[in-house]
Amino acid sequence: MTQSSPRITVLASFSGAGGVERMLVNLLHGLTAQGRDVELLTIRTTSPHLDDLPAAVRRIDLGARHSLGAVGVLARHLRAARPPVLLAAKDRAGRAAVLARRLAGVRTPIVLRLGTNLGAALAERHPLARRLRVATARRSWRRIEHIVAVSAGVAADTADIAQYPRGRISVIHNPVITAQLYAQAALPCPHPWLTAAAQQTAPVVLGAGRLERQKDFPTLLRAFAQLRAARPCRLVLLGDGAWRERLLAEAEALGVAADLDLPGFQANPYPFLANARLFALASAWEGSPNVLTEAMALGTPVVATDCPSGPREILADGRFGPLLPVGDAPALAAAMASVLDAPLPRTTLQDAVSRYRADTSAAAYAAVLDAVAAGLSPPAQSQA
């Protein structure tokens, strides 16, 4: 660390085993690898990803179970430590940071990382609930000095929803690709369907994510049923969630239950991703789907819905995998058949996502945080 590199303080809630927590740990590894002085303020500490924190990160548990409950202790920390810049990893953490800074009476600039397309996520909400959520976002985000969006789609949505100046939004791709990703992917895959021999007769289509509305696995299941009617294949869906029983019942109704497996959450999903013949993303909305990037980094062919937002950017407008309308099972089935018949070369897919390397992402974050700490506009190359 040099004299010109200010300390970086990160505020985050570690409340599960999801992609946000994993990406944050990757980012912290990238920052400490650059020799940066990093402290992590945790709101919740129930994530297994905390076990993978870099040793150099100073972790301070705020002792709260939710973001608003952390405001008082966060204010005391801001008043005592006066960090040069604070990175809030999620929207709720950002709102807590705004309140705590005001309570503390300090000027620590806040940078908020946003990973979800809020407009798409709220599309099906009741109009009153949607207006209330948008009003809350506008009130909070306008008090934040800078926003980092994980995709150009999230940046555009943020500028529109919150009426936030586009010049104060940087687009930085998630720190997805690490040496650990490849090391974990090289471990044996525990699923019998994913052996090379088994896939000679029945190739596996893989889906992954929470079994909930956002991921739209019912559409993927219907598409798979159409694909299965035309050729031998199997579907494996990784993840847990409230829609598990619904998916099992629908598989029975479609006559494909024998070719569907739901093995639940996997602490190491990468051997599954690396060995599947195809990864399919059927989401209704995203921010920047990490699992799609991970599949490509491992050389696995992909198809994805053209949902807001992220897949179009990752797949370069369909150059590296078909983009399908959200909710269109026949189109998804046809795309899966096409990719199974003529997959892109492994190296082509891997090269397509090289900008999602963790060291590249960490360098971009550091540049933004340093600029904001100094009261400057972030460098143009970090913006889309």
Q: What general outline do the C-alpha atoms trace?
A: globular
The average pLDDT score comes to 93
Strand residue content: 15-25%
- How many E-type strands? 13
The ordered string of helix (H) and strand (E) elements is EHEEHEHEHHEHEHHEHEHEHEHEHEHHH
Percent range of helical residues: 40-55%
Which strands sit side by side, in order, in the main sheet? Answer: 3-2-1-4-5-6-7
What's the oligomerization state?
Answer: single chain
Give Rg in angstroms. 21 Å
- Summing up helix and strand content along with how strands pair, one would put the structural category as alpha/beta
Number of helices: 16
pLDDT below 50 for ≥5 consecutive residues: which ranges? none
